[in-house]
Amino acid sequence: MTKRFPDGFLWGGATAANQCEGAYNVDGRGLANVDVVPIGEDRFSIITGKKKMFDFEDGYFYPAQEAIDMYHHFKEDIALFGEMGFKTYRLSIAWTRIFPNGDELEPNEAGLKFYEELFKECHKYGIEPLVTITHFDCPMHLIKEYGGWRNRKMLEFYERLCRTLFTRYKGLVKYWLTFNEINMILHAPFMGAGLYFEEGENEEQIKYQAAHHELVASSIATKLAHEIDPENKVGCMLAAGQYYPHTPHPRDVWEGLQLDRENYFFIDVQARGEYPNYAKKMWERKGLTIEMTEEDLELLREHTVDFVSFSYYASRVASGDPEVQEKTAGNVFASIKNPYLDSSEWGWQIDPLGLRITLNAIWDRYQKPMFIVENGLGAVDEPDENGYVADDYRIDYLAAHIKAMRDAILEDGVELLGYTTWGCIDLVSASTGEMKKRYGFIYVDRDNDGNGTSKRSKKKSFDWYKEVIASNGGIL
């Protein structure tokens, strides 16, 4: 008997506005933190809030300015997604298209119209939009004027954005994610929450206070979504990947537990409705005082998410031994190297069974439906003269991960709503800013320096994924 996925399983792909739309200053769009992050050696210090870059500077290339110009190509791109048979398409809203500065009282109609047309285009092909409200976007005006998410006033601006979106797109969108990889705030705070640190500031205090504001904002969004349209389903989203102990030594097991908790901290609040004791004790130990009101705690308690979504690229390894240092390359979530796993060209370790382990860990922890909203292989693709790429390595990677999630559903009984591969069309890499680190089923003719025709062409994986979807995961 062919093993298939459950009926109604939502197959698709995922992108983010700042990595694919381009048109950064078109139709009234304002400047955002994600725009002013250049490719090159300064990128990491900027996304982590260590180096100040609040505007474009000479001598740098900013890939998000043009990205793959999906703003002007979305009909062509969605037609290709439709041809593959997508049931869902995960995309994000550029906050500054809707509120260019972030603190206006009235939205920008041109921005609202763009997404309305995009959602209607999706429905034309039977594709259900899955919309991330904030995929790292924060208007630069809100960062300069208010300090980003460190400021409680952000709740008001985010609530206005959400109310606008839920009202305008009622009937067009029913699946929403509040914040992309919300745990990124601890690792890349400028990219994750518009946080820049002045010398001498208590960074931990600021990060966790900003985290509290985002968590309350997420609850406000969930409350609003359910009030405006009872059909709405709201999810949280984390960068996932279970930690394995480096050895059976108890201190390694303990370190893994600690690091998993750091990762799940946000989702514990969003899915369970209260701050876990381990977090309160950690704040106590570090001397952090997080300002919160009774109303905040009530919002968190009363308005938990409907489902838990996550990105999965690799498992991680933890060691309590300070001598064990050899880290994996490339990712913001670099961890100790696992000698039993192969790595991608960017040093990300490949662990399909780790996806099954992670699915089970999240299911056991929350018993809420899950959604894998990012999974994919970043690789250098070599197209022929027609733009065709024989990307068997990508097919192998995805097939192994799809088998692992199929086992988690059919053998282990986890509840999974859907699967959207990351970067279903080539786009700008969030971690490195590169175009040559490609994820898509669709090749885009553009290089790291912004050269190229932006012409789209199908890779070998395009037809493969089309068959996976048509067979509901029966043919891999």
Automatic annotation (TrEMBL):
Alphabetical list of PROSITE patterns matching this protein: GLYCOSYL_HYDROL_F1_1 (PS00572), GLYCOSYL_HYDROL_F1_2 (PS00653)
Biological process per Gene Ontology, one example term: carbohydrate catabolic process
Annotated active site: E374 (nucleophile)
Cell membrane is among the record's keywords: no
UniProt-listed Pfam families: Glyco_hydro_1
GO molecular function per UniProt: beta-glucosidase activity
Keywords for the protein's UniProt record, in alphabetical order: Glycosidase, Hydrolase
Keyword match Hydrolase: yes
Cross-referenced InterPro entries: GH, GH_1_N_CS, Glyco_hydro_1, Glyco_hydro_1_AS
GO cellular component: cytosol
Family per record: Belongs to the glycosyl hydrolase 1 family.
Protein name: 6-phospho-beta-glucosidase
